Amino acid sequence: MTRATLLVVLCALLGLPLAACEQTAAAKVPVEKLPELTPSLPAVPTIPPAPYPTQYGDQSYSVYGLRRQLRRTINTDVSVTGFIQNIFVPPVCEKGEKCPLPPAPHFWLADSMTEADKNKMLLVAGYAENQLAIDEAIKDAARGKGPSAEEIESGLLPIPVDLAVGNKVKMKGRFAYISGSGFQSSEGVLGYAGHETLQAVAPVEEKK
Fold it and tell me: What SS3 class is residue 78?
């Protein structure tokens, strides 16, 4: 028989209130204080900021933002601001050599001119059928010859003659998985529908 039980029995024999005996018994029970535990939790992870804004003040997307909002932007007409990082130039074939037909003109747009990862670039196509058409448009522009009245009335977009690596541009076009010129990508391709040059690279001076 424990001491607490013995006290309760004695209280019953002496006719004392049971509640008082229980309190007395409880007071005699030794209480062991457990050591305080300090929870060990991992540090709160630091989420790095987005590398570029999703959209700029003029509501045009960055390349990063265009793909981040892919469910909203795919198969829609959009504006994208970035730098022309690389322009495809078809290889030169020797005279008399049979060369494979090169792909249609296209270039890559990036959020930074120093971007080296092609997976972070946006392919833009559909502004000309071939390189010859671009070369002729550049020659016409140098002679001061622009699109004819018939071409303007037809609604056909003039072939751009001011695209250059390093230029900061705002492109307009249809963002889709497959472009009208046959390019396709799981991350989307921009079908050209016009552009605005925001910042042009300085022209290279010819050596005298």
Answer: strand
> Hey, what are 148's tokens?
């004819």
List all residues 6 or more positions away from 82 whose beta carbon is below 8 Å from its beta carbon: 62, 63, 109, 110, 111, 122, 168, 169, 171
Closest CA to 192 of 129, 125, 134: 125
Strand partners, 194: none
10 Å CB burial of residue 159 (0-12, 13-18, 19+) is buried
Q: What Rg do the C-alpha atoms of the chain give, in angstroms? A: 38
Tokens of 105: 């003109």
pLDDT per residue, tens digit, the chain (208 aa), is: 555 555 555 555 555 555 555 555 555 556 777 777 777 778 878 788 889 999 999 999 999 999 999 999 999 999 999 999 999 998 888 777 788 888 999 999 999 999 999 999 999 999 999 999 999 999 998 888 877 667 666 778 899 999 999 999 999 999 999 998 899 999 999 999 999 999 998 665 544 4
Distances in whole angstroms, Cα of residue 47 to Cα of each of 44, 50, 51, 66: 9, 9, 12, 21
SS3 call for 13: helix
User: Which domains does the chain possess?
Assistant: 1-29 (no CATH), 63-199 (2.40.50.140)
Rounded CA-CA distance 117/112 in Å is 11
**Stated pTM of the model:** 0.73
